[in-house]
Write a structure and sequence with these properties.
The complex is a heterodimer of chains A (565) and B (80).
Chain A lengths: L1 E10 L8 E8 L2 E6 L5 E6 L4 E4 L1 E3 L22 E4 L16 H12 L3 H7 L7 H9 L5 E2 L2 E3 H9 L10 H16 L4 E5 L17 H14 L2 E5 L5 H18 L3 E3 L9 H17 L3 E5 L4 E5 L12 H9 L2 H9 L1 H11 L3 H6 L1 E4 L13 H8 L3 H11 L5 E8 L3 H9 L4 E2 L16 H12 L5 H7 L2 H7 L15 E4 L5 E11 L3 E9 L1 E6 L2 E5 L3 E2 L12 H4 L6
Parallel strand pairs in A: 1-4, 1-5, 6-7, 7-8, 9-10, 10-11, 11-12, 12-13, 13-17
Antiparallel strand pairs in A: 1-2, 2-3, 5-18, 14-16, 15-16, 18-21, 19-20, 21-22, 22-23
Helix pairs in contact in A: 4-5, 5-6, 7-8, 13-14
Chain B lengths: L2 H4 L5 E2 L7 H8 L5 H11 L1 H4 L21 E2 L8
The chains are: A alpha/beta (565), B mainly alpha (80).
Chain lengths: 565, 80
């Protein structure tokens, strides 16, 4: 008897090859047989009329904190995502000394828009080393985690506050190499760094004080293990992005490691810039370097209120400083004080096109319900003011609890995004899962891929799309035995209806520690999600208690044979 | 636009320890008057020049250049 049998499914095996009909039998955590299975299973799933594929891998997330209170990474698992990569952009929650906890929370708050209160009420700080953090999240882990270790955090560990002031000495660099080895031995999939992020005081994060020789020294350690380097380049400028990908290419060639950079958006005003970046990517791959750009599937939608800082205002210093550093009372005073209001309006007026098309998403008072769903241009007409004044006045009237939405801000040309996603050297990712929880939903990007680009636009086949988010990702990230439906591979599987799989509507829910809220999207058309041979979630029964999530690629004792020369 | 032209790379350097606008100007643009070279570097690198300098009393002083920065040593390519 098998532990699990999935019958009568259409197998899309992750290789890109045509689908076929078969049953799948699972023993323990492995795929034991693919074909006609006569024996019964302790559990059986009828996949008639449905697709069975490898579990999806999300390579760009910030679930570091959420995993401490939610081992399912909800709702990502219900979308068919069976492996997540947290620790991107130079930020991980380990290794972390007790005295730096609040510093790191500040960075997560600023960069990833994670509320302070969630850390305060949802996190029991009982680890310092990477190994201790892994031990901590292993409890109740229902989804696989391939964690990056953050460069900024390693600097803080070794250099203390000097990590935010200067380059490292040779001794400090050697110490950082040792710390990185410990993290890789404990299961880190690689290292992340950032060339663009700022901390909560709007000063550069520690990784930006590292010179090229420090990054090179850390990359040499990645080379010992054959592990990946992820970076955030100055993505707003193609010349800078190209310079960074050239740096990555040299590192990739020197140490024979994969590298990846994110994000890469294509907007109406940067088509030529993205073409230049991709031409350089092609050129570097032709040299034998691995420099994978990450591209997200979904268009850019941003919601915000003035109760928390929003990155939509980051290029307007007066607005952003008020949101970042002001108390609610100070923000309201800033909006109502005639002199300050004049200054804010002057700074934001050049962007009136943006304000005009924002919609009021939620309001709390009865008086303003009539404006919900309307654009600020429409509201301004109704109230006899400009769209910008309408946004300010509504925020004051709602005591900052008025929520606005900027929909389809970019990355929304079907033709251009399709071409990017299909590109053989584009890595589908950059969901930012678990982050920016008050700005947009970071869940459902795979459902959107299948619904929009496969089913509606027919821009790519189902087999191509599955390959992009399964075996391609596993290959790029060096995750062994996953990403394909093959005998002997780990049974991370998704059963879904190709005719209905999609992301659900974006909703605003209260499920974050500290009475916090966030935007989420439920899955549509996903039937069953299997992690490590056990059913972790099903549409019929929801999340299961049988938690089999693993740390990937696994402790180095298992993977040392892959070590590069 | 030809592929070779698309992939053209703007010349840049990474800072050396202690670099300032002046030291980079002296090293990378030696044929140019230093004041003009510094001014040119600043205009080609607004991502650095427009950044707030280091914290008061900090090691970086008033130097906005970070050790990780890319510094362009030529102007952006003209739009086609």
């Amino acid at each position: 008897m098998y532990d699990l049998v999935i019958r009568n499914g259409t197998i899309v095996d992750g290789s890109g090859m045509p689908s076929y009909k078969a049953d799948i039998a699972v023993s323990g955590d492995r795929i034991a047989k693919i074909g006609r299975v006569a024996e019964t299973g302790r559990e059986e799933v009828d996949a008639s009329g449905k697709v069975v594929s490898p579990g999806f891998i999300d390579p760009h997330t910030h679930f570091d904190a959420q995993l401490l209170w939610d081992g399912y990474a909800k709702p990502a698992l219900s979308h068919g995502v069976t492996t997540i990569v947290p620790g991107n952009c130079s930020l991980s929650l380990a290794p972390l000394k007790a005295e730096h906890r609040m510093k790191l929370v500040g960075m997560f708050n600023q960069i990833e828009e994670m509320p302070y209160k969630a850390f305060k009420e949802g996190v029991v700080w009982d680890w310092e080393t990477f190994s201790e953090y892994i031990t901590r999240i292993r409890k109740g882990l229902a989804i696989n985690v391939a964690p990056l270790v953050g460069h900024s955090v390693i600097r803080l560990w070794v250099m203390g506050d000097a990590a935010m002031e200067r380059t490292a000495t040779a001794e400090e660099v050697a110490s950082m190499q040792g710390v990185l080895r410990e993290c890789l031995d404990a299961g880190a999939v690689g290292l992340s760094t950032s060339y663009v992020d700022m901390d909560e005081t709007l000063l550069p994060v520690p990784s930006r004080y590292a010179d090229a020789s420090e990054v090179d020294a850390l990359a040499s350690v990645l080379g010992e293990y054959g592990r990946i380097l992820q970076i955030v380049p100055e993505f707003y400028d193609p010349d800078l992005t190209i310079a960074r990908l050239d740096q990555l290419a040299e590192i990739s060639l020197k140490y024979s490691i994969p590298t990846t950079f994110s994000p890469l958006f294509i907007n109406a005003d940067n088509v030529e810039a993205v073409e230049r970046v991709m031409a350089r990517v092609d050129e570097q791959f032709a040299r034998g370097a691995r420099v994978w750009p990450q591209v997200q599937t979904r268009p850019i939608d941003i919601s915000f209120s003035f109760a928390v800082p929003s990155l939509i205002f980051v290029r307007m210093p007066n607005w952003y400083k008020l949101m970042r550093f002001g108390t609610p009372e100070q923000i309201i005073e800033g909006f109502t004080n005639p002199e300050n209001r004049k200054k804010l309006i002057a700074e934001a007026t050049p962007n009136m096109g943006l304000w005009s098309f924002l919609t009021l998403r939620f309001a709390q008072t009865d008086a303003n319900q009539k404006y919900v769903g309307k654009t600020l241009a429409e509201i301004g007409q109704m109230r006899g003011c400009t769209p910008l004044e309408a946004m300010i006045d509504l925020s004051v009237e709602e005591k900052l609890d008025a929520h606005f939405m900027a929909a389809n801000m970019g990355h929304n040309s079907d033709e251009r995004v399709s071409a990017m996603l299909k590109h053989p050297r584009v890595h589908i990712g950059a969901s930012d899962g678990g982050a920016h929880i008050l700005s947009f939903s970071t869940y459902g990007d795979t459902g959107y891929l299948f619904a929009h680009f496969v089913r509606h636009l027919k821009a790519m086949s189902l087999e191509e799309a599955v390959k992009k988010v399964t075996s391609d990702t596993a290959g790029i990230w060096g995750i062994p035995d996953r990403g394909l439906i093959q005998k002997g591979y780990v049974a991370d599987l998704v059963v879904f209806d190709a005719a209905t799989i999609d992301r659900g509507e974006e909703t605003y829910v209260q499920d974050v520690p500290g009475d916090g809220k966030r935007y989420v999207r439920d899955s549509r058309g996903v039937d069953t999600v299997v992690v490590g041979g056990g059913i972790a979630w099903s549409a019929a029964a929801g999340y299961k208690d049988d938690t089999r999530g693993a740390i990937l690629p696994g402790e180095a004792v298992e993977t040392r044979p892959l070590v590069a020369a | 636009m030809a592929a070779a032209e698309l992939s053209r790379v703007r010349r840049s350097v990474l800072p050396q320890p202690g670099d300032t606008w002046n030291t980079i100007a002296q090293r990378e643009l030696p044929k140019m008057d230093e004041a003009k070279a510094v001014s040119s570097l600043q205009s080609w690198n607004l991502h650095v020049f427009m950044r707030a300098a280091g914290a008061a009393g900090g090691v970086r002083g008033t130097n906005p250049i970070l050790p990780s920065d890319v510094i362009f040593i030529e102007a952006p390519a003209a739009k086609a």
